[in-house]
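[step 3/7] inverse_fold.run input=structure_tokens len=234
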């Protein structure tokens, strides 16, 4: 597969066109940002770890009936994926209170939620990704009612599948963010699944093993990412 023009460069990934218009290359970077881009840094080896983790977890989800954009791993830091038309929506699923949920609602960090919480955010950095309801998503034309229903169903299924898998590896899936898109009217899970986009805590010690170590200057960032890779790949 030939790597062609750079299509897009985001905070943590670069997307390249290929000689097949339905496929693009997703290349994971070591750079990290937090707090709406206020904090910038590098997490050494993150690109390769997030590529491996995402590839593995996309494969795992596919084996559980979830369609994803993942085609195959190409190199240490890159994978071939379907080119999707992305919804301008970030989908967050939460099992345990952390992050913005704690700040916004005053719930104590670590509180186990009585049921998983599904949230939608408008993907717009200039507006700081405001939370929206599914009615907003439909009313703003971001997705049809049917698409919102399907995306919600996928997000809930992904949560159950990943939560169970990770629990067997002594990890709590606290919360995570998903992005979906379409190709030929079929909805696929896109983006990545990694410690950049999920919160993972050790079951016993509740130690944070994700990007919160970078966000909160907790130290041991690289080793936390390595630990997740080791536990997930087994
Ligand atoms: N998240 C993400 N990208 C974002 C915002 C959130 O990947 O732009 C992930 C984050 O890593 C966490 C979950 O979504 O696993 C919920 O994030 P939260 O709303 O608590 O926001 P944060 O505290 O990260 O600002």
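[step 3/7] decode complete -> sequence:
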């Amino acid at each position: 597969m030939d790597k062609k023009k750079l299509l897009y460069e985001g905070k943590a990934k670069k997307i390249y066109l290929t000689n097949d218009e339905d496929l693009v290359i997703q290349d994971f970077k070591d750079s990290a940002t937090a707090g709406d881009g206020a904090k910038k840094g590098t997490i050494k080896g993150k690109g390769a770890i997030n590529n491996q983790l995402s590839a593995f977890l996309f494969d795992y989800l596919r084996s559980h009936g979830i369609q994803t954009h993942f085609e195959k791993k190409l190199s240490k830091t890159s994978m071939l994926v379907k080119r999707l038309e992305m919804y301008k929506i970030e989908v967050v699923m939460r099992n345990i209170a952390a992050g913005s949920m704690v700040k916004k609602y005053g719930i104590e960090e670590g509180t186990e939620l009585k049921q998983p919480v599904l949230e939608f955010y408008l993907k717009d950095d200039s507006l700081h990704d405001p939370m929206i309801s599914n009615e907003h998503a439909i009313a703003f034309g971001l997705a049809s009612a049917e698409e919102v229903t399907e995306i919600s169903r996928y997000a809930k299924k992904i949560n159950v599948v990943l939560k169970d898998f990770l629990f067997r590896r002594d990890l709590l899936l606290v919360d995570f963010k998903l992005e979906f898109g379409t190709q030929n009217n079929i909805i696929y899970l896109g983006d990545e699944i990694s410690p950049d986009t999920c919160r993972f805590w050790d079951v016993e010690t509740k130690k944070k093993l994700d990007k919160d170590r970078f966000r909160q200057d907790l130290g041991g960032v690289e080793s936390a990412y390595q630990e997740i890779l080791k536990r997930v790949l087994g």
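[step 4/7] annotate
Residues 85-220 form a domain with the D-amino Acid Aminotransferase; Chain A, domain 1 fold (CATH 3.30.470.20).
Residues 33 and 40 are 4 Å apart (CA to CA).
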